[in-house]
Design brief:
Length: 164
């Protein structure tokens, strides 16, 4: 599914050999948190036909990546990141458009995404791409109480360390 969007940048699906590079990129982009294990998230995406990880390649180098998927009703976008020294060149937009095309090709008519409350500055990017806030409140319930307790502890430690 490789798509070329600009001179030298090709968007396609991540290979197994690129896994660690992509996770390191997401970390540089501030997308990882101690309570979310990106390796487990990647493994889950790799294990299902309903999700994929797209990468933007400039020659040998991976300069951006995103995870997308659909739940049988809507598409979803996660872990969108472009290397800090490659931003404002259209790579983020191209990754989002590629993820949208992936979701559309599987019948999903809409794409949802979550923006962390501490990441409000990214809203201008999504607005530029035609995304708008919903009138809905996002709810969740853990299906793994043990992990939820660990997450509670890690979130508290992270908030203290980051003055949040
Ligand atoms: C958000 C992110 C992926 C954008 O990637 P990018 O390659 O820089 O974005 P693009 O160059 O495709 O930007 C497309 C348009 O979005 C808007 N935009 C992008 N970054 C913006 C910013 N920081 N402030 C305001 N508008 C912005 C602009 O309209 C831009 O078009 P222009 O450059 O022609 O003006 C990148 O900033 C990033 O990795 N951020 C950290 C990780 C993150 O927050 N991810 C989203 C999690 S929800």
């Amino acid at each position: 599914m490789d798509v070329t969007f600009d001179a030298g940048i090709i968007i396609g699906e991540m290979t197994g050999e690129e896994r660690e590079t992509v996770i390191a990129l997401w970390s540089r982009c501030g997308l990882t948190r101690p309570w979310n294990d990106p390796e487990a998230d990647v493994a889950l995406a790799e294990a299902t036909e309903n999700a994929t990880i797209l990468v933007a390649r400039a020659g040998e180098r991976i300069v951006g990546a995103a995870m997308t998927g659909h739940d049988g009703h809507r598409g979803a976008l996660y872990y969108l990141g472009v290397d800090p020294d490659q931003r404002r060149g259209g790579i983020g937009r191209a990754l989002v458009r590629a993820a949208e095309a992936w979701c559309r090709s599987r019948g999903a008519p809409k794409v949802n995404l979550l923006v962390r409350s501490e990441n409000q500055t990214v809203l201008a990017f999504y607005a530029a791409l035609g995304y708008s806030p919903t009138n809905s409140v996002s709810l969740y319930r853990t299906l793994d109480p043990e992990r939820a307790e660990q997450e509670r502890v890690e979130k508290a430690a992270w908030a203290t360390a980051h003055n949040r």
